Amino acid sequence: MDRESILKALYEAVVEGDAERARSAATESLEAGIPPMVAIDAGLTAGIREVGDRFGKCEMFLPEMMMAAEAMAEAIAVLEPHLELAQTKKKGRVLVGTAKGDIHDLGKNIVIALLKVSGYEVIDLGRDVPPPVFIDKAVENKAQVIGISGLLTTTLPMMGEVIEMMKEEGVRQHFKVIIGGGPTSQAYADKIGADGYGETAQHAVDLCDRLLGITQAAG
Question: How many CB atoms lie within 10 A of CB 185?
Answer without folding.
Answer: 15
